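the four lines:
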Amino acid sequence: MPVTIRDVARLAGVSPMTVSRVINGGQNVLQETSQRVQQAIAELGYVPNSLARGLSGQRTRTLALILPDVANPFFTRIVQGAEAVAREAGYQIILCNTDGQLEREAASLQAMLAYRVEGIVIAPVGDTSQGQLSQMAGYGVPLVLVDRAVAAVEGDLVQGDSVGDARRLVQLLTDSGHQRIAMIAGQSYVSTSRDRQAGYRQALEAANLAFDPALVVPSEFDIESGYRATQRLLWLKERPTAIFAVNNLVAVGAVRALREHRLATPDDVALVCFDDIDYASLLCPFLTVMAQPAESYGTIATDMLLERIGGQSNEPSRRVVLSAELIVRESCGTRRTQAYG
Amino acid sequence: MPVTIRDVARLAGVSPMTVSRVINGGQNVLQETSQRVQQAIAELGYVPNSLARGLSGQRTRTLALILPDVANPFFTRIVQGAEAVAREAGYQIILCNTDGQLEREAASLQAMLAYRVEGIVIAPVGDTSQGQLSQMAGYGVPLVLVDRAVAAVEGDLVQGDSVGDARRLVQLLTDSGHQRIAMIAGQSYVSTSRDRQAGYRQALEAANLAFDPALVVPSEFDIESGYRATQRLLWLKERPTAIFAVNNLVAVGAVRALREHRLATPDDVALVCFDDIDYASLLCPFLTVMAQPAESYGTIATDMLLERIGGQSNEPSRRVVLSAELIVRESCGTRRTQAYG
DNA sequence: GTTCGTTCTGGTAGCGTTACCAGGATAGTA
DNA sequence: TACTATCCTGGTAACGCTACCAGAACGAAC
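prediction for all of em together
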């Protein structure tokens, strides 16, 4: 039923090989022949079968992009960056969503392996991904990690300077005199969480503030989790005067909790976080954020991946670290308020 | 280099066919043989080649999901719904982003055809997609449209009751006494835009308000476009007292413009729109929205698609219409203010 | 005229899997 | 014993494409 290369060949009065050549750029094909073939293709509505092409040619021109949460604008930006580069290079991207679950990540990796993608860009679930990621390397599939680092995994890495950026962000709070600064910290098996916590402690230290473990609460990376973590913080006998949220969604949850407790931001509790939201300029407290160049994460990671695939660069493991941009709005309580967005 | 079914067969001391049977559920295979094969699979780290499977078996167990803007939370929700259903059914989803561009949609459709996906869920660019969508039907690929209808396209459809929902939304404004209600209308080649505009006019009529073409400005569906459209409205000699935005992102742009003009919402200008944002409860004006059940769009569309693929139901074209939920917050200026989100 | 190179074209084989058919073994029935 | 039914297994031939090799045609160079 479906039209094959043979049907086209028959109609054009040539061999399948010639049709194949025309499809693939038409090197060494008579102009006239080529036109006849193209006409036959149009007439029959022939669409080359990618499966057969991939199977035969060993090249699928497909990449995988595996992310923990496509609903998070930060990751959506990465998608956009990656897509642009891939499209430019004639590659198709298959997007997978792991929801931060290790098993779903494993399933996605397995599926992408089965699809014979030529490379994978992944923001891993966390350190626990180490086993399955190393396995990928074992299969010879080029791997580029974005955002989150995982020890002992062969592959390039594009990430933010979480330690330094967190330090800068918290310093903003210490500079305005805050003494009890809490952190909603994410999960310790995620490198960004650990690093941001390290930066947080550095900032405290620099300001000669004691580290209080009670002020650091773990969380997931979604709104709901940020909400609950904030509630726990607000129930403390000695309430924090400022909160550092590990990412944007957690901060949104924090805002909700603060509202419910009738606490004003930043007057009662200041709030800062990582990752901007496009709509952040509209959030009531005008969130002060550390905006990571997410789109660049996507473009750079994909560029690096394509280089590996192309065979350029055989260095063992490259690592790109990008600094974030500090966008100071009202929520941190400093008076250096900026205009919208 | 890569491990094939033959390698597994050799190690397990059976034929490739037996290995194939084990992979596919192991009907009619001796328990003992099956175990031997599975052990060989594990030992060699064998991953079946999906390309070969698809080519040989004519079933790729893959669906395409083509959307105009994955960065829009509305569509992201659709993704989540679709993914859940697909995963449950053992299908992989390939996500494509068209950016609302017809050519990119055409390219995606072509690519998905080449990948031999078994079906496509698509929120089309607009009426202009008609040609390329009909073509898909011609190729025998089941199609389900979501959100946006396109005339004369064979395939199921899941959409909102844009006319009725828009009427309800605008009625909220007329009920509070607004006389000059503007609409940022999207593009007329998109069904949702047209329908919402129809609902808008119905509501005006019901309130005995004259329709003023100057108050209806076209737009894209993104923040930037909403911003510019709002500016145009605010430059009018007789400024509107309320704005109905065709979707969430446009509304966000509107908020920005209103802010810049130092106009308060809802006191100076009321604002309502379609589609919620998770963070909407945090937006300063507490946007009043018509929240469409986006996730259901995704699940229902995918369910219908799988039914078609499975061969159940040969009705010509089914159409599912879902009503949205009106979430009244402060931005519309009625005093029936609700609690956060 | 022979040799070589270049340009175009076609045949064959194989990519890794499964559909389909066939056959051997075992057990149950007459 | 013979016949059928059932369970398990293997061989062969595709699926649609491209790598690879080979050959034909033509002109250029010796």
